[in-house]
Amino acid sequence: MSSAGQRARMEEFMARAGAFRESRVILVAVELGIFQTLAKGPLSAEGLARQLRLVPRAVTTVCNALVSLGWLKKKKGDAYSLPRGLRPLLDPDSPHTRVHGLLHTAYVFHSWAQLDAVARGQVDPGETRGKRRTRESNRNFILAMQELSPGREHEMAALLDLSDCSTLCDVGPGPGHYSVALAKKYPRMRFTLVDDPESLEVARDYVGRMPPAISSRFTYVPGDLLRKKKPDWGGPFDAILLSNVVHIFGEEENQAIVQRLAGMLSPRGVLIVRDFAINDEHTAPPVAALFAVNMLANTSRGGCYSERQVRAWMAGAGLSRCKTLDFPPSYLVLGYK
Per residue, what are the HEC states of 48-108? Predict the structure, then answer.
C-alpha cells in the first residue's frame, strides 16, 4: 500500500473510532425528548429547556450540533425545528415513527459502554441488563423489532410456504408482526404467541388493532423457554417460529430449546429458526459480527450462530430434513419432523 493509501486508511480508522459522537448526540436528543417535542412544532432552546426541564446550555449545545449535522434546522429568533422528512420518524404518534427503535438503541448504547468491564469479567451483562430493565424499556425493545425493519414481515410471509399448516406457535414474537403477516396470507391458520407476560401485553395491543378476522385467531400464552417443566402451550403445532431468539442464549441452551420445540411439533410439522446469518468462522458479514458484540454486551451467553450450527441442533432433535431460505441479513432454517 502506498504512503497516501496508508494515510487514508489511518484517517478512516480514526474517523470510525470517533463515530460515536454523532450517534450519541442523536440518541441523547431522543432520550431527552428533544426530537419528539420538536415534531409538534418549532421551539427555542429556552422553550425546550423549560418544557423538558433541562439545562439551557446543554439544550443549546446539543441542538446546535444537530443543526451542524443536518438533523435540525435553526430559524431566526433561535427557534429549532425538524427537517420535513424527519417529522414522521420522530413523532411518537406517527404511524411511521421510529422513536421506540431509537430509544432501544440508546438503551443498548449504555450497554456497549461497559464492554471493557465485560471483557475483564467485572460485569455480568445479563445480570446488569436485568437490573436496568423497566416496563418502558421492554416496551421500546418489543416495538423496536417492527420499527427497525418495516415491511420485513411481509417479505418473510411471501417466502414461506405454510399452506399445509393450520396452527403456528410464535415463540418470542415481539409485537406479533410476523404472525400477523402470516395470518393475512393464511386466513384459516390459528396462532399462539408465547412470551413473558409483560411482553405479551405489547403483542396483545398490537394484534388487537388488527381487524377481528385476524385478531380473533390469536391466543396468548405466558411461557419460559428454559423452564425444566414441560410447557403446556396448547400444542402440538404444525409450525413453530423462533425468530431472532437463539442469539439471546448460549449454544447448549439453544440445543435444549430446539429439542423441546421439536417435541411440540405435530407429525410432519416444521420448526422455523430465523436469526442473523454469520459464516462458520463467525467473522462475516459485519452486521452479524457486530451484532454478536451486542449480545456480548447485553447477555450472559448469547451470540450469533451459523446455519451449520442451527442445522446441527435440529438434527440432534430428530429434525433430519432441513432446508435454508435466504433472508438477508438473516437466514431461515426450516427443520421438518
Answer: HHHHHCCCHHHHHHHHHHHHHHCCCEECCCCEEECCHHHHHHHCCCCCCCCHHHHHHHHHH
Distance from chain centroid for Cα 239: 22
Q: Which of 137, 198, 145, 196 minimizes the C-alpha distance to 174?
A: 145
In angstroms, the CA 195 to CA 201 distance is: 10
Question: 149-282+301-336: CATH homologous superfamily?
Answer: Vaccinia Virus protein VP39 (3.40.50.150)
Q: Does the pTM of the predicted model rise above 0.85?
A: yes
| Cα(297)–Cα(114) distance, integer angstroms | 7
* Interval 218-239 mean pLDDT: 88
Task: For the chain, give every residue range classified as CATH 3.40.50.150.
Answer: 149-282+301-336
Confidence band, pLDDT 50/70/90 cuts, at residue 93 = very high
Q: Are 108 and 302 in contact (CB under 8 A)?
A: no
Omega prior to 211 cis, within 30 of 0: no
212-227 tens-digit pLDDT? 999 999 999 999 888 7
Cα separation, 310 vs 262, in Å, equals 13
Compute CA distances 82 → 29, 43, 90, 213, 240, whole Å.
12, 10, 9, 39, 43
- Are 156 and 326 a contacting pair, CB within 8 Å? no
Q: Which three cell numbers stand for residue 79?
A: 427557534
- For residue 45, with 0-12 CB atoms within 10 Å meaning exposed, 13-18 middle and 19 or more buried, which class applies? buried
For 1-91, the fitting CATH number among 1.10.10.10, 3.30.470.30, 3.30.70.100, 3.40.50.1100 is 1.10.10.10
Cell 446543554: give the residue: 58
